[in-house]
Every structure is written in structure tokens, then in C-alpha cells.
Design goal:
alpha/beta, 2 domains, 6-stranded mixed β-sheet, 6-stranded parallel β-sheet, 15 helices, 32% helix, 20% strand
Length: 434
């Protein structure tokens, strides 16, 4: 019997568990360990609450967990209740699937002012992550600056701009919905160092921006290259740029929508200023060199804003004793191998890139590597040893059966039209299983 521990219950973790089931059949026992009492990682707390079709992939992960040889071990913090080294002693293979939940640091003067928020915190707040339930973003702001030109930046803008009715069918948590109903936001500005041809926004998500009830996207015609250059783009990017060009047409037709969403391309934030809180941002205009890298031009302007959301990427948190690449914000690895018996997968392996689906081939590849390295396994205790260790330490893990009780309670307390009302407090989650 092969014994595998996977740390992290998001897409990378579950695709790796599914791959192990298919590779080894009944000759494997997989424990998926997570610090929260609830599974599915960014599917639950990262994917936008109004994108329920994407969240539905969790049903696939649930099927993996219903097999006898895969077990969810929730409410266990690796590094606290059990160390990576101890897991390596107990399991033939330990896979770090911890994702990249920490924001990259916004390293400009004034980034520590109240009102500057990282996207991990803001997204976690409206998605009900226990770590961010008390965030209280300053929604009395009339102008918000969003740093970044990717899909997370789009999610943040869309959530800020939607009406209450547009959240019908979503699982946005109640405290966020109540706060957003009283929002004073009138202007949202995206800041990107490069231009329309370099955005990381995908077509579907960008197209949604032009369909909002009370918000209107605005772009400047002078930021675009010649339309003939669009033909050189790959198809997905070409569709995204087409949406941006469509926004030009919408803008020329005029609108009485009260919220304006502007794209400031070729714009690099250099300083955030304010007296005890965010009041404005100093932005430097950029230009692209021959390698399409942005360079400051020296020309600067002021952008009034009372809230800043930094959507500039994520980092995997280091774990004591595990080699780490600080420059890339991920575990040091060679094709997923870190040390003998220790592996990483997903964003913890490659950094925050790719879609949810990218984690599937990644998970299957890491299981192939494990199969090559450990052979038939069978020389370690696996879950029996973990259970013994937890019994000695008084650790009571949350099971998948417990999670289903928590889920039932969340469904029961949902507002009309919503699939669930998430618990945002760990103690409440634990209580709901009893």
C-alpha cells in the first residue's frame, strides 16, 4: 500500500488525489490535509461568488473524496499540529498543494496607508474566508484604484460595481453584500503598466464588464495600436482586445450609468499619498521597449482615490524546512520534486499562473513522478500513524462527513436565491458539524 499526504484541499490537491486513485487503484491511501474545516480552497474562497458555474467543479472533487482510499483531514495546520518532517516520516510521499494565498507586496511609498488592500484580502472578505471576515474595506470611498490588468482585478471591479439584484444566485457572504449595498463608489480605475495588447484579462470575464446594470467601462482610443495589429494576437487575446474596442463604441454612445470604470493603460503607480488614509495616487506614464517591457517616461499625474486594491499577483507562503525560491514566491523544485519523498504541485510548484484546469495535468504529472520514485511503497504507517499522532496530541480533525454537515447548515441558512450562506468563523463551522 502506498501512503500519500497532500497538504491543501484546493484544485491542485484534489486533482493529485484523483490522479493517485486512477494510477494506483485500491493500492493507495491518500490523506488531504487542510488548515480550514472546509475543503476546496480557492474554489470556495477565491473564485468570484457570481461565477457559480466555475465553482461547480467542486462536485468533481467531492467524488474523489467519496472513495474509501481518499480522506479529508480538515482543521489541521501543518507546522502547528504536525510538521512536514513528521509527515515525511509517516508517508511514502508528501505533496505540497498549498497554492499561493498571500499577496505580492506592493512596494511603493504609502502602501501601508489605511485603505490600501491586497486582492487576497479583499477577495477573501467577500468570499467569506475566516482570515478576512473583519476586513471592513472603506466603501465610503467615491473613487477606487485597482492595480493590475488580470482577471482578479476584473473580479474586484465587478463586485464593487454590481447592484444588489445582480448578486442573485451568487454565494457572496451576507456581511459583504450588506456593506456593498451602502457603497459610495462612483469611479473605478484600472492601472496597468502596459497596453491593451498585453492585458491578462480573459474574454468572458472582460465581456461581463460591458453588461453591468449601473456601471460603464471607459477606454481611451489613443491607447490602442492600429486595429490591423490585432490580427497578430492569439485568438483569446484578440477576443479580449475586441471587447476593449467595443467599450470605445459604448462610451461614444454615452450613458447615464452612475459608476464609471476606466482603464488607465501605460500607467505605473509610484506613490500613494494621504493624511492618515488614502487620498490620492501618483502615477507615472510608461512606454514599451522593443521587448514589450514597460519603462517609466518621467511624466506623472495624480489620481484621486480613497481606496486602493492591489491585484499584482500572489505568493506561496514558505514552510519551515522546505527549500523556497523567494524571488518567485514558490517552493524550490525540479518538475515538482523538492526533496526525496517531498513534492509540490499547482501554484506552489509553478507560481500563480494558469487556470483551475491547468492543475489537472499538473496533478497527474506529479503522481507519475511519485510512482517512479516510491515504487510499491508500503514501508510507512500512513494514516494510521497520523491518527496515532493526533490521538497523542489531542488533535480532532474535521472529516469529509463533518464537512457535509457544515455544508447542509450553510445551505439551510442561505438567503433567498443564494446557494448557501457561508460560515465565516471557524468555531461556527465546527459547531455546525455536531
Amino acid at each position: 500500500m502506498r501512503h500519500i499526504a497532500i497538504i491543501g484541499s484546493g484544485p491542485a490537491g484534489y486533482y493529485s488525489a484523483e490522479a493517485a486513485q486512477k494510477k494506483f487503484g485500491e493500492d493507495v491511501a491518500v490523506d488531504i490535509i487542510d488548515r480550514l474545516p472546509v475543503p476546496f480552497g480557492l474554489i470556495r474562497t477565491g473564485v468570484a461568488p457570481d461565477h457559480q458555474s466555475i465553482k461547480a467543479v467542486s462536485r468533481r472533487y467531492e467524488k474523489t473524496n467519496l472513495g474509501d482510499n481518499v480522506r479529508f483531514v480538515g482543521n489541521v495546520t501543518v507546522g502547528d499540529q504536525v510538521s512536514v518532517a513528521e509527515l515525511q516520516d509517516l508517508y511514502d510521499a508528501v505533496v505540497l498543494a498549498t497554492g499561493a494565498p498571500n499577496d505580492r507586496v506592493l512596494d511603493i511609498p504609502g502602501s501601508d496607508l489605511p485603505g490600501v488592500i491586497g486582492s487576497a484580502a479583499f477577495v477573501g472578505w467577500y468570499n467569506g474566508h475566516p482570515d478576512f471576515k473583519d476586513l471592513a474595506p472603506p466603501l465610503d470611498a467615491t473613487s477606487v484604484a485597482i492595480i493590475g490588468n488580470g482577471n482578479v482585478a476584473l473580479d474586484v471591479a465587478r463586485i464593487l460595481a454590481k447592484t444588489e439584484d445582480e448578486f442573485a444566485g451568487s454565494d457572496i457572504v451576507g456581511h459583504a453584500l450588506d456593506a456593498l449595498k451602502d457603497s459610495k463608489v462612483e469611479k473605478i480605475t484600472f492601472l496597468g503598466r502596459r497596453g491593451p495588447h498585453q492585458i491578462a484579462m480573459t474574454p468572458k470575464e472582460l465581456g461581463e464588464l460591458g453588461q453591468l446594470e449601473r456601471a460603464m467601462p471607459h477606454v481611451a482610443a489613443e491607447d490602442f495600436p492600429d486595429i490591423g495589429d490585432d490580427a497578430m494576437l492569439e485568438p483569446g487575446m484578440r477576443k479580449s482586445v475586441t471587447h476593449l474596442r467595443d467599450f470605445l463604441t459604448l462610451d461614444s454612445e454615452g450613458t447615464d450609468k452612475p459608476v464609471k470604470i476606466s482603464f488607465d493603460f501605460f500607467a505605473m503607480p509610484v506613490e500613494i499619498q494621504g493624511d492618515g488614509k488614502v487620498e490620492k495616487m501618483i502615477v507615472e506614464k510608461t512606454a514599451l521597449d522593443k521587448d514589450l517591457r514597460s519603462q517609466g517616461t518621467g511624466e506623472r499625474y495624480e489620481l484621486d482615490c480613497q481606496m486602493v486594491v492591489s491585484c499584482i499577483g500572489y505568493r506561496t507562503p514558505p514552510i519551515e524546512g522546505v527549500p523556497y525560491e523567494h524571488g518567485r514566491g514558490r517552493f524550490a523544485n525540479s518538475e515538482g520534486r523538492i526533496l526525496p519523498g517531498l513534492y509540490c504541485v499547482g501554484w506552489a510548484r509553478r507560481g500563480p499562473s494558469g487556470t483551475i484546469g491547468t492543475n489537472k495535468p499538473d496533478g497527474f504529472a506529479i503522481v507519475d513522478a511519485i510512482a517512479e520514485d516510491i515504487g510499491a511503497g508500503g514501508r510507512k504507517e500512513g494514516r494510521a500513524g497520523l491518527d496515532r499522532l493526533f490521538a497523542e496530541r489531542g488533535v480532532e480533525a474535521v472529516t469529509f462527513r463533518d464537512w457535509k454537515k457544515i455544508e447542509e447548515a450553510e445551505i439551510a441558512r442561505a438567503r433567498e436565491g443564494s446557494p448557501r450562506e457561508k460560515f465565516t468563523d471557524i468555531a461556527d463551522m465546527i459547531a455546525a458539524r455536531d
